[in-house]
Amino acid sequence: MPRVLLIEDDPSIREGVGLGLRRRGHDVSAAETGEAGLLLMSSFHPELVLLDLMLPGINGVQVCRRIRETSQVPIIMLTARGDDFDIVVGLEAGADDYIVKPARTEVIEARIKAVLRRLTEPAGQRPGVEFHGELAIDRAGLTVAKNGERVPLAPSEIKLLLHLSASPEQVFSRQQLLEYVWDHSYHADARLVDACVRRLRHKVEDPEATPRYIQTVRGFGYRFGPL
Asked: In angstroms, rounded to a whole number, what is the distance separating the alpha carbons of residues 51 and 62?
């Protein structure tokens, strides 16, 4: 079971979630502040981070950005109900998914498994490296390079790119992408797709240019190419 770093300032939630995950076999390290959580990142080496958005001192969005400077570890945000603006900001900062509190341990465990599956079940996996213009996509190795330089991608970003590029010019709706990449089947999470697309474009597209790889099809969704 993956090591989980839980960063949550509410002691009842921190203890309850930590206890529930430990009972399911996870090695859990918990921190009550963003500063403490960042220190644990380097010593605990988590395989997944559960990150509360509303933290004292360094807030969750800032913590997420700091983690993304050096690591692509999966991050799931914990957010209070109704914090729609904070959810979008957190996703833009690099989070892979979010959970609205309070949440049962079974729900958290299901989301953890869904996020980690993105690391082991690439879309349309086949051997070799594909070249799409300046991009080199290694499906087996789950890596992407642009002009010969490795592009660091979070789990949701790599799986989204793999899924779109496996069928160039095919249009995928946001709902289809939610179901495949995030294992979500409800419409309320379309912002997960849009935020991930914006982050992915920032990394693989040329700045201040019309998107070349991840294209928007207005009224429908997204497609890869043409090149």
From this structure: 11
